[in-house]
Design a protein that fits this description.
Number of helices: 23
Strand order of the largest sheet: 1-8-7-3-4-5-6-2
Structural class: alpha/beta
Bound molecules: phosphoenolpyruvate, magnesium ion
Shape: globular
Radius of gyration: 26 Å
Strand content: 5-15%
Number of strands: 16
Largest sheet: 8 strands, mixed
Distance between the termini: 42 Å
Mean pLDDT: 88
Helix content: 40-55%
Low-confidence stretches: 153-175
């Protein structure tokens, strides 16, 4: 039966495919595709895990047998019997084998997927006693996973897959069809794994428009919907699903008519992309001849390829924290970082690259064991530059790596989330210190322009101080909106209040652009607002000449730039930001 689930549209386009459900609450489990010749070793890993847990239970049973009934009540041994029975259940092992051999999931992913399938069967049971056995099943799977975590894995790299395009599905139901990921949530580290894989689209239960999951989804350039509440509960493994990334809807089990309609929309979208691609080499000039700089936001050095392909004039934001995440808290050393930054710089073939120092904390934990559960308000906690200043060794290592990479091309160094003059001075003196360390070592390094992100209202209200110290500013509207309006950007329950058009937000953005222009300092916007065509004319009218966004958005924004007359937009832009309801004017303009 066809049904649809509404969420928040975060990445445009239509995806049609079979659902791959990621079991909820297991974002700490590695998910990646294996090669077909690795299936036996992955099955062996699960078997070894299961056998180890069976042995462990046997040993426990022997210990219990040697105890009296007071120390070891009868219920305990009955419970262990249930666990043994579940471990020997063929449906568990056969199911795991199916996900490994037929879908090429890695062992942990296959196990949690089968656990999810069986859990749903338990949920549907009439008998309460049997229903409650679900908890035992989860415990058993948890023990296998824990064992597997300790045992070495023979599979190290998630290889790219060779699946077919979405169109194949409409032509032939028997082919290896595209896959659509449906998950409760995805950690940014998980998203990086999927960057190398094959999903045609994805939907998550949680997340807001500018959550980091949404941001990485945009950079994957696949249709995506977040905040789709119970999507991962309502859809089942292998269901046909459509992700409508324009409308923010996921359709489960579509009828043939709906499928045909979306197949048509999908082809229209591809034609539009083909048309936009012709703008790649067109200079980004407004009708009145103003030169506009369209830059790319990237997460990994390899993203330089898509940045160049989209015709970016450089990288306006390299989110370096993605090099730090998902490594069990071990931060990358100087050489590894130097190598990554150098690859990004060389990948951009002489165009400038702005490297932002690490911005972990809040919704971007270093890894799952670092999730900030101890703090009630992680977004207001030890995040970004605050974390870097609290870990000066780690920070100087990063600064040295960036300075060394700057010997290979034009590099700007960008510092996130500053608010206090004291933090600014501390940061700049650590940069001097890092230079002195390289001098003492005799290691070559290059010059950098140093910039600050304007992400906290306190920063936007202290522009003179910021401009006294920095060469340029970059407005991070995602956080600026979050902190100005007191709206958690990750929380879908307040997503309707997350409003880039709020007059207070627009005033801070407008003042920052105006003050930089007045002082002849560089200013850009690198938050999601920069890539949203709805705001292109407004930002141009406010005097912005540098926009940084996901490569996938560059050509659409360029098309808007080519149609705009920047000088004529000035008066209208003033009117918009002074209005009580700027959104109404924006849409009418
Ligand atoms: C922002 O806050 O707008 C920004 C670009 O930084 P991030 O999204 O990585 O927090
Ligand atoms: Mg930010």
């Amino acid at each position: 039966m066809t049904f649809s689930i509404h969420g928040i549209a975060v990445a445009r386009g239509i995806a049609i495919g079979r659902a791959v459900i990621l079991a909820s609450g297991r974002v700490d489990v590695a998910h990646y595709f294996i090669e077909s010749d690795q299936t036996d070793s992955e099955i062996a890993r699960v078997r070894a895990g299961r056998n180890a847990v069976v042995d462990e239970i046997h040993r426990l049973q022997q210990t219990i047998a040697s105890m009296g009934p007071k120390e070891a009540p009868h219920e305990l041994s009955a419970l262990l019997d249930v666990h043994l029975m579940l471990l020997q259940d063929e449906e568990l092992i056969q199911g795991v084998k199916h996900w490994i051999t037929d879908r090429l999931y890695n062992a942990e992913w296959a196990l949690t997927t089968q656990l999810d399938v069986l859990s749903r069967q338990f949920d549907d049971m009439e008998d309460e006693y049997l229903r409650e056995r679900k908890a035992d099943l989860e415990q058993v799977a948890e023990r296998i996973l824990r064992y597997m975590k300790g045992a070495p894995s023979p599979v190290t790299h998630p290889p790219p897959s060779k699946r077919k395009t979405p169109q194949d599905l409409l032509l032939d139901d028997s082919v290896d069809v595209p896959l659509v990921l449906v998950a409760h949530d995805l950690s940014p580290a998980d998203m990086l794994q999927f960057k190398q894989s094959v999903f045609a689209g994805f939907a998550t239960d949680v997340g807001g428009k500018t959550s980091h999951t949404a941001i990485v989804a945009r950079s994957l350039d696949i249709p995506a919907v977040v905040g789709a509440r119970s999507a991962s509960q309502l859809a089942r493994q292998d269901d046909w699903v459509i992700i409508d990334g324009d409308a923010g809807v996921m359709i489960v089990d579509p009828s043939p008519i709906i499928l045909a309609e979306y197949g048509f929309k999908q082809r229209q979208g591809e034609l539009e992309r083909g048309r936009l691609a012709r703008l790649r080499h067109t200079p980004a000039l407004t009708l009145d001849g103003q030169k506009i700089e369209l830059l790319a936001n990237i997460e990994l050095p390899e993203d330089a390829i898509s940045a160049l392909k989209a015709g970016a004039a450089g990288v306006g934001l390299f989110r370096s924290e993605f090099l730090f995440m998902g490594r069990n808290g071990n931060t990358p050393d100087e050489e590894e970082q130097y190598d990554a930054y150098r690859r990004a710089i060389e990948g951009m073939e002489g165009l400038p690259v702005t490297i932002r120092t690490v911005d972990v904390g809040a919704d971007k934990p270093l890894d799952d064991s670092h999730r900030d559960e101890a703090h009630a308000n992680p977004a207001l906690g030890l995040r970004a530059i605050r974390w870097s200043l609290s870990e000066p060794e780690m920070f100087r290592t990063q600064l040295r790596a960036i300075l060394r990479a700057a010997a290979h091309g034009k590099v700007n160094l960008l510092v996130p989330m500053l608010a206090h003059a004291g933090e600014i001075r501390q940061t700049l003196s650590l940069i001097d210190f890092a230079r002195a360390e390289l001098d003492n070592r005799g290691t070559p390094y290059g010059p950098v322009q140093i910039g600050a992100m304007i992400e906290v209202p306190a920063a936007a209200l202290s522009l003179r101080t910021f401009l006294r110290y920095f060469d340029f500013l970059s407005i991070g509207t995602n956080d600026l909106i979050q902190y100005t309006l007191a709206i958690d950007r990750d929380d879908e329950s307040v997503a309707h209040l997350y409003d880039p058009c709020h007059p207070a937000v627009l005033k801070l953005v407008a003042d920052t652009i105006a003050e930089c222009n007045r002082q002849g300092k560089g200013v850009s916007v690198c938050g999601e607002m920069a890539g949203d065509v709805q705001f292109t004319r407004l930002l141009l009218g406010l005097g912005l000449r540098s926009f940084s966004m996901h490569p996938a958005q560059i050509l659409t924004v360029k098309q808007e730039v080519l149609r705009a007359d920047a000088s004529r937009l000035q008066a209208w832009a003033r009117e918009v930001i002074e209005a009580e309801d700027p959104a109404a004017l924006l849409n009418a303009g």
